[in-house]
Design a protein that fits this description.
This protein is α/β, with parallel strands linked by helices and 188 residues long. The chain folds into two domains: 132 residues, Flavodoxin domain (Rossmann fold, 3-Layer(aba) Sandwich); 41 residues, no CATH class. The protein has eight helices and eight strands; from the N terminus they run E-H-E-E-E-H-H-E-H-H-E-E-H-H-E-H. Strands 1, 2, 3, 4, 5 and 6 form a six-stranded mixed β-sheet that branches. A two-stranded antiparallel ribbon has the order 7-8. Strand 1, helix 1 and strand 2 form a beta-alpha-beta unit. The chain is elongated. The model has no long low-confidence stretch (mean pLDDT 86). Pfam families: Flavodoxin_5. This is Flavodoxin. GO terms for molecular function: electron transfer activity; FMN binding; menaquinone-dependent protoporphyrinogen oxidase activity. InterPro entries: Flavodoxin_CS, Flavodoxin_dom, Flavoprotein-like_sf, Protoporphyrinogen_IX_DH.
């Protein structure tokens, strides 16, 4: 059986929830991105998850910084955000964001997944609240040119929403089980 390391970068907890469930189901080690560098050498398969924030992926800089340690390893990369990956109109933007976040040297060995997250505006830092307010104004100015993702953003703005569906990580876990030669538990 191969050694699996599940790494996550999460500001408010949704990405951490997915990562913890994946690690538990696969009997894998769980680490925050900031603590992962010394653990990468011992891993055969690395799951790296990051929350989507302002068109970027949380933890992407650390991923790039450690790209050499990940070269040749099986990488499963997932993003976590409000956009619905089941909505065909949202998928291109999610894929583009993931491609920008993944270092070129790692793209060939990486499988990419997108999962829905959560948002509690009351829990946002003042900086994130300010950024979300600016984003809202930019989207409102688009008028009829708003995308489905834009409309989802406006629908959830200022609210507490939770779209986390741990079972949505099932395909990711199935790929991991196959890569690790393991028949570990289900994601729940």
């Amino acid at each position: 059986m191969k050694h699996i390391l599940v790494v996550y970068a999460s500001h408010y907890g949704a990405t951490r929830r997915y990562a913890a469930c994946i690690a538990k189901a696969l009997h894998a080690r769980l680490a925050e991105a900031r603590d992962a560098a010394p653990l990468l050498a011992g891993a055969d398969v690395v799951v790296w998850g990051g929350g989507l924030y302002a068109g970027g992926v949380n933890g992407a800089k650390l991923l790039a910084k450690n790209a050499e340690k990940l070269r040749g390893k099986r990488l499963i990369f997932f993003t976590c955000g409000l956009a619905d990956p089941e909505e065909p109109a949202d998928l291109p933007a999610l894929q583009q964001t993931a491609q920008r976040a993944l270092p070129a040297a790692l793209r060939e060995n990486a499988a990419v997944f997108h999962l829905r997250g959560a948002m509690d505006y009351a829990a946002l830092s003042p900086l994130h609240r300010l950024m979300m307010g600016m984003m809202k104004r930019m989207i409102e100015r688009k008028g009829d040119a708003q995308t489905g993702e834009d409309r989802q953003f406006l629908d959830t703005y200022g609210k507490k929403v939770d779209f986390v569906d741990l079972s949505a990580a099932g395909p990711l876990a199935a790929l991991l089980r196959a890569a690790a030669g393991d028949a570990a538990g289900e994601i729940r």
